[in-house]
Amino acid sequence: MLSLALPTRTWAHRIPAGLKLLVLLALSTWLFTIEDPGILLSCLLAVGLMTALLGRAALKQSWRQFKPLWSMLALLLIFHALIEDLATGMIICLKIVTLVQFANLVTMTTPLGSMIALVERLLGPLKALGVPARVIALAMGLVIRFTPTLMQKTAQLQDAWRARSKRRPYWRIIVPLTIAAIDDAEQVADAIRARGGARDR
Amino acid sequence: MAKPSSLERDIALIAMFAALIAALGLLPKVMLATGVPITAQSFGVMLAGAVLGAKRGFLAVLLFVALTVLGLPLLAGGRGGLAVLASPTVGFVIGFPFAALATGFLMEIGKPSAMFMRGVFAAILGGIVVLYGFGIPGMAIRLEKDLLEAAGFALPYLPGDLLKAVLTGAVVASLYRARPGVFAYQRAGR
């Protein structure tokens, strides 16, 4: 699945993307000035409750997003237990977990299309400065289209390698993968040109 | 393969390399003896800069980072979304485009020669010196540590990143033989 937004509509989907981003920005600035464990703990509880209100799919996905983070947080706690005191380490961990989870909430409840539309809108006023908002939106769409194709190509090359060799493929497929990507890009460029080009008119 | 460069071609290449960085994130992790996994993702950043040059490489990686932050699960391990900005590794993610910029800049200097060595050095400068220059302060701020302690957290990744720089040189040398037209030199010479 190439999106982190939840497929189902929830109460938080109705809040405008711009407002959610603004709240996230405010929270991330404010949270780092707080040292009181009571306030931090209630913030974490509130964020957890909001996630739970979104349903099981949201909880499952949040868990997946956190997986790579645990080892780093554990390291941080051990570091603090040895050097300073455990309490400081726990306060920092609380802040990080709360903030990461609130950011997850915004991502899960804002479809990618709304995000890209927001970017295009925010970049709009910069058009006078030469920022090509339309070209950027086109490029974003292309990446979303290309990524699954290249992932499939990667899997194919790995399979082809395994059929020929007992060793694991690792880096050996990178050159053919990159060449395939470059050749595809040339064809896509021809196709865009044939359909009138990418320039703003 | 000397196709004329054009806006459309640059957009397609930039988008394709952004997608390539994502696809490389799917490659199986290699465990180093130190127990630190190395993923191919920052390798993709080095490669984008080395092949596309400073400007297009920067834009390709910026596009990748922007889409990741906006909600595509493209970082290694399926991470993505705004949470990336809140996590301790935020500095590395922000540093990615600048790493590609520095790598590409070094590749573009002078005439294309000794592509392997050039690629290795460019990748070390961009993918390690510049990238850590962003990543370590980021970790220091998020984890509320001083710079030296944060550097200690980043140290285990160094051997893997050196390996990736060597790999970048090797891939760049092969690509320069196979598809010289995409490299930035060809454009400058026109």
Description:
The complex is a heterodimer of chains A (201) and B (190). Chain A is mainly α and 201 residues long. Chain A folds into two domains: 11-110, no CATH class; 123-194, no CATH class. Chain A is built from seven helices and no strands. In chain A, helix 2 (37-54) runs parallel beside helix 4 and helix 5 (112-123) packs across helix 6. Chain B is an all-alpha fold. Chain B has a single domain, classed as Arp2/3 complex 21 kDa subunit ARPC3. Chain B contains eight helices and two strands, in the order αββααααααα. Chain B has helices spanning 7-24, 41-70, 83-86, 90-108, 115-142, 147-154, 158-178, 184-188; strands at 30-31, 37-38. Chain B has a two-stranded antiparallel sheet with strand order 1-2. Chains A and B meet through helix 1, helix 3, helix 4, helix 5 and helix 6 of A and helix 1, helix 2, helix 3 and helix 7 of B.
Summarize the topology.
The complex is a heterodimer of chains A (201) and B (190).
Chain A: H1 17-31, H2 37-54, H3 56-83, H4 86-108, H5 112-123, H6 133-164, H7 174-194
Helix pairs in contact in A: 1-4, 2-4, 3-4, 5-6, 6-7
Chain B: H1 7-24, E1 30-31, E2 37-38, H2 41-70, H3 83-86, H4 90-108, H5 115-142, H6 147-154, H7 158-178, H8 184-188
Antiparallel strand pairs in B: 1-2
Helix pairs in contact in B: 1-2, 2-4, 2-5, 2-7, 4-5, 5-6, 5-7
